[in-house]
């Protein structure tokens, strides 16, 4: 019996070792595998390097899935071979083998990499570096594995897309715009220098390419920015984009650097904008492209309708266009040291019109240059080309092209083209150009309108000059022309064709959005003359830099006027200028009116001065003139042309909206003199700073008076001043009336201070302890004061006092205080009354309290009791009569009614009682004063 043979142990199945039992038994999915490259392969050939290729196999399958191309004589091959496995079962391992290709013998294995399913499923593997194993193997293999999702879902979606593509194909051809933008990291196939790359586009299954880009010489990262429209593309046809290295000596010889094949569903109908990896033998790098669906045959028909319309418009005659070249950005650097100095030209078919100018160094180049195309025919394409001014040869031919933009007629005519950024096209170009195109109408109509306008201007000019008021309000978004800080802008106005400016504003320091509110009256403006506004940045001394310019045709503002924000133009200009222009009428009529006004003023001034009551009520919206807190404003009033102010208010501390309620009587005002009110900030400095100013023409307040909130002219918009002006009549009449009243002698007045309401609370604890004092100006001491109403903001005094001698013309000052024990009373408010307010007719009214921070009202009654001498005589007579009645004749009954008692109730009787009461009140007042004085000394 033979002994049993020893059974050799079975070798483990590598498929089982690599299978991942943790993965769910899901349905099949799609995988995209990209064999990118290998590095450091062993050298399997005797005389040369290896000729490697790679084979991919799913270990559960018998046959390999795919293999790459052979890369000759290279131990660091780059394949960039992409393959889609339509049905991959999760859990199946992959095997990647690298071989050395031999023409006469069997391929030699250079190494193996086995990849477990869990390594790439379900999250994929991005540029995985796999170490090759096996006998004598060395080096690594670089792969990318992508999970494209469920095979069933993909197949369903694919079927749906293909059905949709069939429907679209049945609908007819479409127009596609294919933009081949750039490539990067291409393979270098030239012995000297680098590859000379170009790209071609072919619609499969056609043999010939549709188009190809220009050649970018000696560059592995070419930029083409080449755009081409495929006139008739059928849905479902794939596109093949091939990048080649051109042969300078033989145009037929070219080396393939890589291919991108795109299925129709990848870009149609939604379009595509992305970077695609190049594939193929030895391919490396990527291609940046963009594909746009421009529409179907119906769109083509519409385009043809546009062309037909263009024919009709062309037959109608030439039109005028305004082409504005706004800016450019992302331009390539063409200078060795400096940045480029670009300019742009505009060409219309066979005509050439240079537009825009040279711009200084910068990253965004701003021209804002307008050009009028006087005769444009519908259908003509516009071509805008940007050059670098520094790169001009001696024959004035530009050698450095930034880029070119071609705009088809239908894109801007007749509807115009709003501000739009268009990409430059051409070999090696980059950047964008921003333009704005407007259709200004038929040239013939414009010429007719021009002729009519010229006739109108001639008529207006024949009528003589006019006066216009030009107000330069503000500017916004100006260019910053300073190295440190912002621009220091000012604006000048010039009437063309004059060479010198008519006027200019002040300089606003460190601002790109200045506010000037500068007003200027042009005394003699002739219709038809243009206005030119130029904004400058003021540098040291007389140096200045233009920030932008606006030119206004006469028809834009005359005779109707204008208020608008105008776009600045010129090299590097940006931002807007806000102006207001008003037509003030004929200069001759104004001069005649001025002469008549001067005569009227002379007549009024000859009649003598008047008296004015000027009340500065409040201000609002004042700016902060110092770093900490708010301004400390006060207001000064000046009667022009005097140099010194007539009066000024008190200072209101730390307030941007002060309330002064300051009244002042101007004793002598002559008609024709304007008033100037200036608000200052009294912050500690050598000189108060001006917060705002307003000049009030005399006609606005004389003789009718004025009550208005006036806008202050300042660098801070929105500030205003509220004033009241009252005409108190002729000074001569006032003096005559006062003289007549004063000639009669002093009068007796009865004052009744009834009450106050809504007073300011000046105490920390409790309410104000208020009292009221009355002073007859120009006396220093008060005439009387009421008792103190303790802890009262609405005190009721009903305090009566008789002034024994009042002279007509003397003003009154009534002041309400808060009494503080041992301290100076706090001012709660004050009222000034001129003599005419209460004498001789009396007064009974509730008056508002004025002064800083004052609130509330004061109710009082003032009565004239008559001439003091007459009242005193009547009192003497009355007292004598009373004395006689008390003594009585002998035998008469003392209790019997007498005629003297009736007389007491007659004229003057009430005055006697009032005098007695006034005397008692005066004694009480004096006692109260002494007591207060004693308290203050003790305190």
TrEMBL record:
It comes from Polarella glacialis (Dinoflagellate). Residues 891-904 have a biased composition (Acidic residues). Residues 10-132, 157-277, 302-424, 449-568, 593-712, 730-849 form the C2 domain. SMART domains: C2 (SM00239). Pfam families: C2. Residues 1-22, 883-939 are annotated as: Disordered. SUPFAM superfamilies: C2 domain (Calcium/lipid-binding domain, CaLB). Keywords: Calcium, Metal-binding. One of its GO terms (molecular function) is calcium ion binding. Residues 913-939 have a biased composition (Basic and acidic residues). This is C2 domain-containing protein. InterPro entries: C2_dom, C2_domain_sf. One of its GO terms (cellular component) is membrane. CDD domains: C2 (cd00030). It comes from the Eukaryota.
